[in-house]
Design brief:
This protein is α+β, with helices and mostly antiparallel strands. Among the domains are: 183 residues, Dipeptide-binding Protein, Domain 1 (Dipeptide-binding Protein, domain 1), CATH 3.90.76.10; 214 residues, Dipeptide-binding Protein, Domain 3 (Dipeptide-binding Protein, domain 3), CATH 3.10.105. 28% of the residues lie in helices and 20% in strands. It has 20 helices and 26 strands. The strands form 8 sheets. The protein has a 5-stranded mixed β-sheet with strand order 19-18-20-13-21, sandwiched between helices. It has a 4-stranded mixed β-sheet with strand order 1-10-9-8, with no helix packed on it. Helix 12 runs antiparallel to helix 14. The protein is globular, with a radius of gyration of 26 Å.
Length: 613
């Protein structure tokens, strides 16, 4: 197709008043419909890796679940979009390819085939011609090209995405409606992780403008996955509905998954109330990860009479960076010596041994579980009143009359912002132990949405939270100075270290896997030296309680499963199903007073040897 035809289309659209493409857009520059595929391409696919769903799964029913706070927006980019509910929306937006959760090999999603260019920067993709948006419009290669326009736009107010889709993705080339290439800005060993992007519905968004953030706050954007938001009431609920005749339902790695017709999220702001909902059978599943729920609170009739079952399932996946995040922009934490002393004043092991019954493991740093990319020589700073005394004295601080360290009218007294009341006992122990070291922790429990907003606005002293993980360590968003001293970025410690910046930039630009691994190890060592993150716990398993009408496959989950009852995630979600016959049987038994054999499953198939501190 000659360029003149493209520009004629632009002229026609201008004449009728609908300017869909901007001739200066990155799509117009990077997506070239006149390109010719190189000769000798070796097309690959994967239709032979193990299926991890169950052939016994049945369709129908509803999963009733809950969220502790209503999302601040349905947008997945821009201000206030980085909340926990975002994953429920993104997990229903497929990518070109994905990774098999047990073999780690590439598997198809929207693309049926892929190929690697010899430049090690470019991948080619053939799209599934059946792929469609939830409004019925076909997914084409142009939707992937439009992703660059969208993610590079200043109007989405998302600096991380602006940066990533500029510095990591060079171009998208469209050969026809169902064939494209995505080119990285540089060669890299994990190319598929960079260029296996998701489409963006150009027919829905069109040309973006300065009103994007407000205009799309609560709009339901078309997606490509199995479920779409059906209805919602702000502050109350969000309900998802399975699409009828979803285009992907019979594909090898999607078959017998995403089985329930609806997924209903009810807002239950109090965790204790959520437990009550679950015990009454109004919520179908409940995370029993916390020891007091697994051991004591589950020792009740609905479990003992077999109406509710329990499972402990070990996984093998990168561990969440969970802990205490210190805001270096606060005067009290501007001195690294104080941050190091603070770390030594946190008795994490006491919390593990007392509150958590020794079931959790000490997290030694932020990047555990990434294979060779993890610096396993790093050990978390142990609790030591002597070290705190030595460091603080050398830094010119003295103990006040109440035992808290003081210097120039400043006390080592900080707010710890958190959002989960069930974590209060852990923090109470930390608070009591910290007092012995001359540190005062003032616990600040907020609603989940309010806490996350405060943290992203960098108004916290100390944030108690954890971040989600990826297949490889990612440093720029959380540790580079470009994201310090500004709101709505993930650098919540406001770390501004030029040496660290240099290493992170080299890591992002490296063409060699061995060099990237070496840089990763050095970066983690510098992050440890920075002492603005105090690692706490890692949990190498998931534990659930679930009403017996919710069924799991015989393998229960995959190596990467972090929630056996995740309804959406395309990598490992949607494996369970609802059994109406068992539902009726259970309710009948409860009314008559009869019972079933109690069931507790311990699945250690993917258990790894985890070191304790």
């Amino acid at each position: 197709m000659p360029y003149i035809k493209y520009y004629l289309k632009i002229l026609i659209l201008l004449l009728i008043g609908f300017l869909f493409f901007n001739e200066n857009s990155s799509t117009a520059k990077s997506a070239n419909s006149t390109a010719t595929l190189p000769e000798g391409i070796e097309w690959l696919t994967n239709d032979s890796d193990p299926i991890f769903s169950s052939p016994n799964a049945v369709k129908g029913g509803t999963l009733r679940t809950a969220i502790l706070s209503f999302p601040m927006t349905f947008r997945t980019v821009g201000p206030d979009s980085n909340g926990s509910f975002r994953s429920a929306i993104l997990d229903n937006q497929l990518s070109l390819i994905n990774i098999h959760p047990d073999t780690d090999k590439i598997i198809p999603e929207i693309a049926t085939h892929w190929a690697f260019d010899k430049d090690k920067k470019t991948m080619y993709f053939k799209l599934n011609k059946d792929a469609a948006w939830s409004d019925g419009v076909k997914v084409t290669a142009w939707d992937f090209a439009y992703t660059l326009d969208f993610m590079r736009s200043e109007h989405i107010i998302a600096p991380w995405y602006n940066d990533y889709y500029t510095k990591e993705i060079e171009s998208v080339t469209v050969y026809d409606d169902y064939t494209l290439a995505v080119k990285s800005t540089k060669a890299q060993p994990d190319l598929y992780m960079i260029v296996g992007i998701s489409p963006t519905p150009r027919h829905f968004f069109g040309t973006l403008n300065k009103d994007f953030v407000n205009e799309y706050n609560w709009k339901i954007v078309p997606n490509t996955g199995p479920y779409q938001i059906e209805d919602f009431k702000k502050g109350k609920y969000v309900n998802f509905k399975l699409k009828k005749n979803w285009w992907g339902e019979n594909l090898r790695y999607f078959k017998n998954r995403f089985n329930v017709d609806r997924v209903n999220f009810t807002v239950i702001r109090d965790f204790n109330m959520l437990w009550e909902y679950f015990k009454k059978g109004n919520i179908d599943t409940f995370a029993l990860t916390m020891p007091n729920y697994w051991y004591e609170k589950s020792n009740i009739d609905v479990f003992n009479k077999g109406y509710v079952e329990k499972i402990s399932f070990f996984n093998d996946t990168p561990r969440s960076a969970s802990g205490l995040w210190l805001n270096e922009d606060k005067n009290i934490f501007s001195d690294k010596r104080v941050r190091v002393a603070f770390s030594h004043g946190m008795n994490i092991q006491k919390v593990i041994d007392s509150v958590l019954r020794g079931d959790y493991f000490r997290l030694h740093q932020a990047y555990i579980g990434y294979g060779e990319y993890t610096n396993n020589t790093i050990k978390a700073r142990p609790f030591s009143i002597e070290k705190v005394e030595s460091i603080m004295t050398d830094a010119g601080w003295k103990r006040g009359s109440d035992g808290i360290w003081e210097k120039e009218k400043m006390r080592l007294s900080v707010d710890v912002t958190y959002s989960f009341d069930e974590h209060t006992p852990r923090l109470v122990v930390l608070k009591e132990e910290a007092l012995k070291a001359g540190i005062e922790l003032k616990l600040q429990l907020l609603d989940g949405t309010a806490a996350f907003k405060k943290i992203l606005e960098k108004k916290h002293d100390v944030a108690w939270m954890g971040w989600s993980t990826g297949l490889r360590p990612s440093y720029w968003e959380s540790w580079h100075s470009e994201n310090a001293h500004k709101v709505q970025t993930n650098n919540i410690t406001n770390t501004d270290n030029k040496e660290l910046d240099t290493l992170i930039d080299k890591y992002r630009e490296s063409l060699d896997e061995k060099e990237r691994i070496a840089l990763s190890v050095k970066i983690q060592a510098l992050i440890h030296e920075q002492a603005s993150f105090v690692p706490t716990f890692m949990v190498p398993y998931v534990r659930h309680g679930y009403w017996r009408w919710i069924k799991l496959p015989s393998n229960h989950g995959t190596k990467k499963s972090e929630d056996l009852f995740d309804p959406f995630g395309s990598m490992a979600g949607g494996l369970f199903w609802f059994d109406k016959n068992v539902y009726d049987e259970t309710n009948k038994a409860m009314k008559s007073g009869s019972q079933f054999k109690p069931i507790t499953i311990i699945d250690e198939r993917f258990k790894q040897v985890e070191g304790r501190n």
